[in-house]
Structures are given as structure tokens and as C-alpha cells.
Amino acid sequence: xxxxxxxxxxxxxxxxxxxxxxxxxxxxxxxxRDSRKNIMLSDEKIIPLDNKLGLNxxxxxxKKFYEExxxxxxxxxxxxxxxxxxxxxxxxxHTAEPNKVGSKGWLGQAIKDLDPNSxxxxxxxxxxxxxPRALVAPDVPVTSVGDIENYGLFTSISDEDNKTxxxxxxxxxxxxxxxxxxxxxxxxxxxxxxxxxxxxxxxAPKLYKSNIEYPDTNIAKQLKGVAQVHFANxxxxxxxxxxxxxxxxTNEVVLQEYLWHQLSDALSSFFQDLEEHNKGKEVLVFIFSxxxxxxxDNGTGTDHGSGGVSFLIGKSVKGGHYNEYPSLDPSERVExxxxxxxxxxxxxxxxxxxxxxIEANEIVGGNFEKIKPFI
Length: 375
Description:
This protein is α/β, with parallel strands linked by helices. About 35% of the residues lie in helices and about 15% in strands.
């Protein structure tokens, strides 16, 4: 496999807690109907799948991926002793440390393995609005992009001469002449890496040509940015994007469908773009959320739960259902939540070892059951 065909991971974070039960719907299960009297999805809205399951009406493109054999649905994903705090649960997913506060992100450690000497400041590119802990690790550069069409420092300076002078000052300020103090050296390297990342990423839109029209949504802009950078052959191996708003305590039916419509439309354009550029085989999309939600509704929505669902999409994915859908029986629940039956660190091990060819044991903290979802 050439450098231009190296395997690439695109991680999509569904922030807020995507409701598993109204995402992959056990629509024939009477307990689902009894538990979701106020927010149960009607038969005519659900997209039929198989195994007596259906998809949220906003997930049309996922049915297409599934029928093509390119979608793996991983059921019951979670970790021991579930935590219903957004911040703590997301931190657990980001660091693969369920039992303590982790200091290194799982993808940050992967970046270090892929680029041990930090030679490429765009080995990883983050398109979300903040730098996720998943990407953070000592001596690991990550280029973070808000809007690739307007990417760079000093974007509020309109005069190009003044912007160039400001950029030169920035680069001189963050030069290696700052001594041996660890903090100052770290800041110096971070600044230089940021400057280098600007110079590289700014070229991506100029090199990009496509006949695909992306929707005018934030998630679509992020995925278009992923395509632009990937097609530019900068050697980026890990991309990170964020799609938020899944904390559906109220108005869940409308909100969750709307968010999945946005994501589905964006994914449709993204994979069409990959197909047009003959780039689909080396790209894997991984979708996760910090937790699922309670089995019983709260009136118009659902509260924080535990066991959830994750997805893998790509031409190299062996599509289908992985693991069993957790039991809805009240006697099988954990404090009213679905009980997880697959440790997310096993899924990380699949991605690290069988996709990125990285030893997972140290990153995830042990050996965990894998599902082998790749061709």
C-alpha cells in the first residue's frame, strides 16, 4: 500500500448521548412499546432493517450502507460501572481509562505510534470546535481546524501584508530559543507546529476538485474538510469531527431525527466524494457517543443511560450486526439502563490493531475481546 493509500480513520463523536433505543429500534418488542409510550417511533416512520430491528427515520443512508455490506452495527457498547456524567463518560471514552482519570488520549497515543518523531504536524487533523482529549498526548502535534475555508491564525486581519508580518512575529516568538524549561519548550513547539499546520492545511481547498455538493450544515462542512485534506495527500491518518446536540431530555423524537438527517446527508456526500476520487477503500468511519439513554422515557425525552451503539462504515468493513442487542427486561437492566455487553476497549483494539496496525494493549490497558469487523 502506497503512502497515498495508507489506511485512514475518521472518528465522528455524537456529543450528548445518542439514544440507542430510538436509533436502532427494537420495534417489535412489547417492552419497547410499553417503556416509550410518549416517544415511541411509529411503525410507518421506522426504516425496517432485520433481526426485528429498525432504523430511526433520519438514518436513511445507513440502510443503504447496510444493504451494501459496508455498515457494522456494534450493539451494547459500554464499560463496567457506567457513569452518567457527560464529562466523565466522554473522558473515559477519550482516554480508555474507566477506573481513573486518564492523562493520554487513545488516539493521541496512536498518533505517536504512527509518527514517533513528530515529523508530520498533520498526521492528525481535528475539525471539531475544540481539541478532544482523545487526541492529546505528550509530544504529539495535532492540527485543529475550525473552518477550513477560513483556516489560520490572525484571520481577523484583512490586510495581507499585516497578516504576513503578524505571522512572522508569531513564528519568531515561538522559536526554539526559549531555553530548557519544559513548559516553555512545550509552548514553543506547540506554536511552531500550529504555524506549520496553517501553512499545510491552507493548501487543501486549493487542491480540491469535486462534483459533489455538500449540505450547508456544520457536520457536512467538517466532512468536506476531511475529504479536502485526505485528497491533498498530506499524510493525515486520523481525522476527528463532532456532531452535537444529542442530549435529548426533551423533544427527543424531532431532535434526534433532525440530527441524524444532518449526519446522514453529510455522510452521503462524503462517501460519494470518496467514490468519485477512488478513495473509499482506505477510509474507515467510526461513530460513537458517550452513553445511551434510559429505557423508560421521561415524558418528551430520555435521561442519561449507559449501554449504547457504535458504527463502523467503509468499503473494507464486513457489514452486519455485532454482539446481541441488550435485554430490555427490567430484571436485566442496570439501574434502569440497558446493560452493556461489549467493552468499548475491544472495539478500540479492533480499530488500532486490525485497521491502523498499532499494538493496542498498552493504549487500552489490557487485552479485550474483539469483533474482527474488517475484510
